[in-house]
Write a structure and sequence with these properties.
globular; alpha/beta; Rossmann fold; 5 helices
């Protein structure tokens, strides 16, 4: 039995970044998986071997109902670019989740503007993991559900 592959889609707002969009209907797609490469890496180079495994016949069914996004960011200097890279990652995952149409551009034939993912999985390699962590902290600080918890923790001198 042959497995229908994900479709490659260049992300027009993020040079050298791309998505692998599930062949399943929008109703059957559950999650977005974001991959962030590490220092001195690239979206394609870091994950090349992995890309060929997602649609392999032996891959688990979990991948079939997932759209995959691969961000390419500047990595010239981890010291001067860390803040800029964190902002890039933060904007990227906010553009993809929960509604991917903003990241994919207006010509997206795969997901309609009213589509929303149910789950988000973040995968970072090396510096990519650090950037994801910093981006998640940034997102939490702007989340109205989390803000009262942060104020309570600060009042209790937790940090």
């Amino acid at each position: 039995m042959t497995r229908e592959p994900h479709s490659y889609f260049a992300l027009p707002f993020h040079p050298k970044s791309f998505a692998l969009i599930s062949p399943l209907s929008a109703e059957d797609v559950k999650r977005a998986v974001l991959f962030i490469h590490g220092f001195n890496g690239s979206a394609r180079g870091t994950w090349t071997d992995f890309l060929s495994l997602v649609d392999h016949q032996g891959a688990g069914d979990w991948w079939k109902d997932s759209d995959l996004f691969f961000l390419n960011y500047q990595w010239e200097s981890v010291f001067s670019q860390l803040i800029n890279n964190t902002l890039t990652v933060y904007k990227f995952f906010r553009a993809v989740f929960p509604a991917p149409h903003r990241a994919l551009g207006t010509d997206n034939p795969f997901r309609t503007p009213d589509f929303n993912y149910r789950d988000l999985l973040l995968v970072g390699h090396s510096e990519g993991g650090l950037l994801l962590r910093k981006a998640m902290v940034e997102a939490a600080q702007h989340d109205p559900v989390v803000q009262p918890l942060l104020r309570s923790a600060q009042a209790a001198n937790f940090f």
